[in-house]
Amino acid sequence: MNQSQPSHLEPDARDLARRVRAFVETHILPREGELAGPRASAQACHAELAALARQEGLWGAFYPGRLASLEAYLAVAEQEGRSEYGPAVFGADATLDAHMLARHAGPDVRATFLAPLLRGDAVSAYGMSEPQSIGSIPATLTTRARLVDEQWRLEGRKWFICRADRASFVTVVARTDEGPLEGALSMILVPTAAHGFAIARELDILGRFQGQCEIVLDGVRVPRHNVLGQAGGGLALMQERLGLGRILRAAHWLGLAQRCFDQLCARVVSARGEQARLADKQLVRLRIFEAYQAIAGARGLLQDAARKFDAGVDNAIEGNVAKVAASRALSLVADSAIQIYGAEGLSELSPLSGIYRTARATHILDGTDDALISAVGRRLLDVYRSAGTLDFDWPTLAATRADTAHSGAKQGEAS
């Protein structure tokens, strides 16, 4: 793929993207076998590569205070994401937590959790999903926290928690009030070394363990100031996390999709591909076209969502549609590449089999496709009912106005 970036990006972002691409090609891709191997050797390899990334100034590209805009970071994120292991090596896995802590943590929490996270001395995790709850319905969460002698006492279970196997702390979503949901949930930072915190079991994703675990909070006590933002403000913070997090993850998925596109085209024009006359086959050309279209379309959607994020505009529709588009693009391109490689693509002889499993998981992670599609469809219909048309440049703004009008009408009926 062409490594040059659009001219509207900040100069340092273009240079950083090129340097990240070179690092991935030189240092990460040749060692993916180690990173996917036995845990001890994989962790040692990861630590070595992460230290080298910090040494070369490639660590935490979108941490608070670095690149000025999310739109500029997208080009860097795509290069970080060319390997399944890239985001972790470059510290990008912590970007979302770094922004949430920078925006909403008090001084004590910043000193205890944010500072070591930015240095690479701590690993963060986020605990929302629960074994007995519905992931897309926060009202079903059962983990509870109550104040006892100026400490939060937490009881509950969380599962499929990314990086739980090595996390230094977990931001736990817990119910702190039994009233209406809007003021009932809070985010509380819990050190994994706290008494009562335990990993109940490790959970695989399509047959591979990738650091996700079920955790138990059995009377865990943390200081009152360990709450993120204000107690009761957890629902709004959850929505804020999802809005940024989906864009960050989707950009990394597009990096993987671009790598699969490279693999696909490389096989078609290779000596073996020439022997099979792959480039002359219309179905092969169709796969190339559809793969390119899917990637280019998802990139445009992500850039639109990022611009609105940078402008402080509600981008829920744009971000959700971009997340689904990136997930679909990765799945389509990985599948096409495997189809062209044949049995080799299904084996460990190529990176495609691992990427394919990752691609399938993206349809579940950060909100299932079904839930996002249903929610966006409902909002778009609400806009159309209210306005009789749809502004494709600003659908979320129109949706907000429609929601406000609908709410006002309901209040008028009630009065």
UniProtKB/TrEMBL annotation:
Which species? Answer: Pseudomonas lalucatii
Keyword Oxidoreductase set for record: yes
Entry-linked CDD domains:
ACAD (cd00567)
Q: Which UniProt keywords apply?
A: FAD, Flavoprotein, Oxidoreductase
UniProt record similarity statement: Belongs to the acyl-CoA dehydrogenase family.
By what name is this protein known?
A: Acyl-CoA dehydrogenase
Q: Which InterPro entries match?
A: Acyl-CoA_dehydrogenase, Acyl-CoA_Oxase/DH_mid-dom, Acyl-CoA_Oxase/DH_mid-dom_sf, AcylCo_DH-like_C, AcylCo_DH/oxidase_C, AcylCoA_DH/ox_N, AcylCoA_DH/ox_N_sf, AcylCoA_DH/oxidase_NM_dom_sf
Cofactors that this protein relies on: FAD
